[in-house]
Amino acid sequence: MYSKKFGRILLGFYSHNTNVSSVIKRRLATCPFSWSSACKHRKQLLQRTTIVSSERSVLLCQMSSTQSASNTTVDPEEVRRFQALASKWWDEQGEFAALHSLNDLRVPFIRDNLMSLHRECQPGRPLGGLKILDVGCGGGLLTEPLARLGGHVLGVDPVENSISLARLHSSSDPELGGRLRYRACTVEELLGSEEDVRGEEKEAGEGPFDAVVASEVVEHLADLETFAFCCGHLIKPGGSLFITTINKTNLSYALAIVAAEQILRIVPQGTHDWDKFISPADLERLLEPHGFSVLTVRGMLYNPVTGSWCWSDNTEINYALHAVKAAEEPPHRQAEPEGRA
Amino acid sequence: MHSLAKAALVRNKFIQLQQLSSVSRILGRRAVGTDTGDKDEVYDVVISGGGMVGSAMACSLGMQPNLEGRKILLLEAGNKKVMDRVPDTYSTRVSSISPGSATLLNSIGAWDHIMKMRCKPYQKMQVWDACSDALITFDKDDLQDEMAYIVENDVVVAALTRQLDSLPDIVKVKYRSRVVQYTWPTPYQSDGGVPWVQVTLASGETLSTRLLVGIVVAPHQTSGGCSSGVAPLQTSGGCSSRVAPLQTSKNNVAWQRFLPTGPIAMLPLSDTQSSLVWSTSHRQAEDLLALDDESFVDAVNSAFWSNENQSELVETAGSLFRNALSALMPSAGSPRQLPPSVAGIGPKSRLSFPLGVGHAAEYIRHRVALIGDAAHRVHPLAGQGANLGFGDVALLSQVLGSAAFDGKDLGAMQHLLEYETERQRHNLPMMAAIDLMKRLYSTNAAPAVLLRTFGLQATNMLPPLKEQIISFASK
After folding, report:
1. pLDDT at B12
2. Alpha-carbon gap, residue B334 to B256, rounded angstroms
3. Which residues bind Mg(2+) (chain A) (predicted)?
4. How far apart are CA A93 and CA A101, in angstroms?
């Protein structure tokens, strides 16, 4: 507690108005030699890609960007921050570099847990036939690998620029075209449109989904309760919910805010608000009334020198959570104990 | 760390990846995307170049479970090699297949076909110097294990082709297709830009692919001779290798003798036939080609048997050293054996081909990976050229399988970098060692001869060291 307040006073924690971006967690390693030169060396090693950022930003300026309607889960200020950085999504050495390398953990996490729940999968397409929703998909960094693995994926994000960029990036790949779609909307709007469709005929609706993925999203939301409610209604009974986010602890404050944003500057300042972080226990308490039961929680650690992530037993900073929606509808589930009593 | 090793080796003779960028400079950044005929069909992997390594790559990818449902294409400039029945005469070009390569070929199902056709395992190898008495022998202690296998290149390709025929759904092969131009990926935002590698064939067809695997480098783009610095391979002063099948008395051993002009090796093909590989200068190669069969056989026998290069000093020093070592380690060392004499040679079977030595500084770029001769060419003195290529195949295929299982774009740099790092860690020391051996043995100056004599004799007396050498070469 005191360390937190002291830290805030000393380092001027609350700076609201800067840009945004990816979630980058890291752990302050024990030997602080020259981070910048290590990161620079790694950047040079990977300089041989052909992604050009300048052309991208020019093109995106020409695209129209409409402000999405304000809704309860979305924080308008977060949306503004992400719009400014929309062009940088696919630069593997840019601001979102750590999100690109986070795919090494989160794609296998999602894939393996879904494969163990749905036994009938074909080799080459482990997620074949599954309908997946990626909430807060951004530029499609996680959406594309899931589609490549055979899933029918819908990516939603309130930031119009990001969705346009994601569509553009996936448009040239004929393999993804059939299985990957994007919509610029919030998760509540999606639920609303689903219910309209269900009311009429069951044809053009997107869900319900076998899995919903909200990776590095809940720490940017304004209202988690609504988010949990929407997820509860968008997922099939027995379906999965995957969340990766940051824990709310002193250590996460020290590393994810102070170290990452202010000292090492791996994340742009103001990306994260420590008050929005949530611990696994609180998240579980939030999800249970909506019919979810948490199956797995695993910690993740970022190594700033190599720029890679690894699994860890320590969930104090970053963690990944897998929850499953009950096979019966929540009202029945709540009615049961009363019946027994 | 590996960049330091690279710098040490980059002297004169390197095939730079600049040749690829020079191709793209010539082509300019033409938007080939307007060719809408093939726009919708994007191959997952196109392997440019067939032969042993290319066909093995195609088979290996085709049998990866994680790549099921993908589209793989092999482009072979030559005709399809079918071998229903093994011909009576041995073909001229052979390779020494190490146990590691045999494991790869077994895993892709081609080894069974090879065993049914023709291959010769050998357990023992003797290498000795023309300028002194020093020799080293390698043999597997229990004769059940093979050291390596001598297989004709045609047999390997035919076996791989037969295996490819059984994978029609995933792997397609285009024979007699020569590539005339490569177009590298452009950033996807620019108008008409295509984010894939585009390959244009001589027939005018254009193919798009997520990943291009290159096996061969076009001849005019290689640089570097083998001993005279940077020079095109056609000029004299370079090296070439003569190969021919020989008839000998019973032979189960691989022999190699280092002459000052280059090593000469006899590799067993069957009990009575062996294959000759003689690396020498262009001029001497031409002279040898011009000889008639009898004189050629005499030249081969004299190369293996004659002692004319030995001097008194070296002989004395060598025998002193040997006696000293055998006093220290009486049980180590092996008796010197002489190779079988050559009785005859197959008619019209002599072939000469130029040698190149080179190493690409980078094996990979965005959406491109080089394997086999395109990445590294070595002198045949250690019989490692094909084995390095097979090692590349095994690793790249495994890396691509894991990448596909993680949903990654096959042409992405991250896993290609892993392949490059891992292979360079293995290939660079091997190439350095082969280069060192070649330089050391290409002179008959007394100091060098004494040094290598002592070194060879000492190594011969140390079984643990020999075992390390064998295991490194067997991977």
Report:
1. 40
2. 16
3. 216, 219-220
4. 10
DSSP state of A43: H
Residue B385 has φ and ψ, to the nearest 5°, of -55, -55
Q: What would the pLDDT profile of B125-182 be if each residue is shown by its tens digit?
A: 888 888 877 888 887 765 557 788 999 999 999 999 999 998 878 899 988 888 888 8
- d(CA B127, CA B140) in angstroms, rounded, equals 15
Residue with tokens 């074909």: A122
B268 and B297 Cβ atoms separated by less than 8 Å: no
Kindly report, residue by residue over B374-431, the tens digit of the pLDDT: 888 888 888 888 999 999 999 999 999 999 999 999 988 889 999 999 999 999 998 8
A42 is in an annotated binding site: no
3-state secondary structure of A173: coil
Q: What is the ipTM of this complex?
A: 0.76
Q: Which residues contact A34 (CB under 8 A, 6 or more apart)?
A: none
Name every residue in B having a CB less than 8 A away from some CB of A.
40-42, 65-70, 184-190, 194-196, 362, 364-366, 404-409, 413-414, 417
Is the model more confident about B192 or about B470? B470
DSSP string, B76-137: -SS-----SS--SSPPS-EEEE-HHHHHHHHHTT-HHHHHHH--EEE-EEEEEESSSS-EEE
The most distant pair of C-alpha atoms in chain B lies apart, rounded to whole Å, by 78
Asked if B185 lies within 8 A of A50 by C-beta distance, the reply is: yes
Measured between alpha carbons, how far is A100 from A89 in angstroms, rounded to an integer?
Answer: 9
Which one has a higher pLDDT value, B225 or B4? B4
| Chain A with chain B: Cβ pairs closer than 8 A | 78
Give the whole-angstrom CA distance, residue B228 versus residue A317: 60
Global confidence as pTM: 0.79
Q: Is A208 exposed, middle or buried (0-12, 13-18, 19+ CB in 10 A)?
A: middle
Chain B CA closest to residue A170? B188
